[in-house]
Design a protein that fits this description.
single chain, Arc Repressor Mutant, subunit A, Jelly Rolls, 46% helix, 19% strand
């Protein structure tokens, strides 16, 4: 998914009215942090809606002002993901986890305007998380999960893991970071992200290693140390097992 434009906490006055004609492949996610008028109906704050480009868009302020988060993005190449997420397009979604959605859009906005080398990977990860979350909030009032109150803390932790692969992450330190017991944390991490926390730690290390190998002239030993490995041979074995080639071979392919 490619973000075209993004806004977090955008504020508009009472006369604001947004309209746009249908445009195939162009999506718009709107998350209202105040009351919003959609198709003539006044809806409560926390309402979210994802337009898929198949129909005209119209929404406006319902009170003295409208506060909303919004993302315009291309959906080309991700139709399969959208289908699997079971998103209800062009319909307001109620009982949204407003704080979590807003946190994700805030982090996405920061990444969108950053110049970090891992910018696109972080954006892709957070966009997919946001879409999955938006897809499920419509039924949360009926179903709910134990993970729901912890999404914000867990997403922040995962970003720390991927941004700091050199740290000595283990189950105890990660659980302490989000103030949970070891067993409860491991259960929730897998429930939310679909992988174990330690598998994700390794993924973060390997992704960082690939980035360093393709963008710098650091030796394999230096790369291993920068990614938190004490043993160069362990790093090389793990890298080849996951990526399919040695670190040196990966560097040659990426040049």
């Amino acid at each position: 998914m490619n973000i075209r434009a993004i806004g977090w906490g955008s504020i508009y006055d009472r006369d604001y009215r947004y309209t746009a004609e249908a445009e195939n492949g162009v999506y718009l996610l709107v998350h209202a942090r105040s009351r919003i008028r959609i198709k003539g109906a006044v809806l409560p704050k926390g309402t979210a809606i994802v337009y898929d480009g198949s129909e005209n868009i119209e929404y406006s302020a319902a009170d003295e002002y409208l506060v909303c988060d919004w993302i315009s993005f291309d959906g080309e190449g991700d139709a399969e993901f959208s289908d699997s997420a079971e998103i209800v397009f062009n319909q307001p979604i109620f009982n949204a986890d407003s704080d979590f959605i807003s946190l994700l859009v805030q982090n996405l906005t920061a990444e969108f305007y950053s110049v970090g080398s891992r910018r696109m990977k972080m954006i892709d990860f957070m966009m997919k998380t946001l879409i999955m979350k938006t897809a499920e909030v419509g039924t949360y009032g009926e179903t709910g999960t134990a993970a729901e109150p912890h999404y914000g803390a867990m997403i922040e932790l995962r970003e720390k893991i991927y941004r700091n692969p050199q740290l000595k992450w283990n189950v105890d330190t990660m659980a302490a970071d989000v103030n949970m017991s070891r067993s409860y944390f491991q259960h929730l991490y897998r429930e939310i992200f679909g992988v174990s926390c330690m598998t994700d730690v390794i993924s973060g290390k390997i992704e960082k290693a690939k980035e360093i190998l393709s963008e710098t002239g650091c030796t394999v030993s230096q790369v291993a140390a920068m990614c938190g490995y004490d043993n160069e041979e362990h790093f090389m074995r793990q890298f080849k097992k996951i990526v399919g080639v040695t670190p040196t071979g990966y560097r040659k392919k990426s040049l």
